[in-house]
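In response to a reviewer's request, we include the raw inputs and outputs for one of the modeled complexes. The four entities were modeled together in a single run.
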Amino acid sequence: MTKQKSIILEIINNSCEHLTAEAVYEKSLEKLPKIALATVYNNLNALTASGDIKRINMPDGSAHYDKTIPHDHMVCTVCHKITDVSSYGNYTDKKIKKAYEKATGENIIGYDLILYHVCGDCAKKQIKNI
Amino acid sequence: MTKQKSIILEIINNSCEHLTAEAVYEKSLEKLPKIALATVYNNLNALTASGDIKRINMPDGSAHYDKTIPHDHMVCTVCHKITDVSSYGNYTDKKIKKAYEKATGENIIGYDLILYHVCGDCAKKQIKNI
DNA sequence: ATATTTTTTAGAATTATTCTAAATTTTTCA
DNA sequence: TGAAAAATTTAGAATAATTCTAAAAAATAT
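The model returned the following structure tokens for the whole complex.
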């Protein structure tokens, strides 16, 4: 575990946002002004492979990095804002896994779920434009 | 609806695979030897925007295009093979929407679900390697 | 403490995708 | 129908995200 790697992990674990590689790079520059962008990519890949962080792929193809505390994402189809959604409180995740294990006969290790909605701000704007 | 557009739509609707833009381009060359890669990208974007096809973003960041008949995807975490999973037979999709509408208080328009498993072939190989 | 291995750095290279401007095709409607 | 307008296609240049390379630095093992 190098300085670079631990700072990158810390940045992701301390952020409430869903950072892109570029954004992680910019934040890491504040702590390590000499860090290379390639190092950020290396470590994001390594941390994703080891399961310490999670990569989420947005519908527009952009990659964001996230903590591993299990949760789902809800994306506004208009402005693309990402909101975290707990997948725990209601045990939905266990239900989903069970339903799909039954349907497929496979052992479901995990899943990624991205929900789509129109956020409050965009809904307001849409009403105005009618 | 141009020749190019309709051929691209046909390729995606007649394929059982999950084609990348490049793969769609190669298939379309068989029918239209002069088609430009940019035309393929233009039309994939247009068809996605109009809802005639669907773009799926794999965990490794690669984009694949798919028919719009609603279904989910199961990806092998070892070889990344994609398998279609019906989301209809068991009404799971309605249940998922309802559960998350209750949890978030939002109107859920839709969702993308990617399930992870280890496929039969990879499971066999893993056993051998122990 | 020295050798070996791993990681970092900086910049070049690659890949996927988008942009641009001219040519072509399609659509509009007089 | 046929000219004008609008939209699409083409080819290639441009861009952006990511990976690769080779040397330097840091970490780890002996």
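As requested, we also summarize the result in words. The beta strands of chain A are 54-57, 63-66, 71-76, 82-86, 110-117. The first helix of chain A runs from residue 3 to 14.
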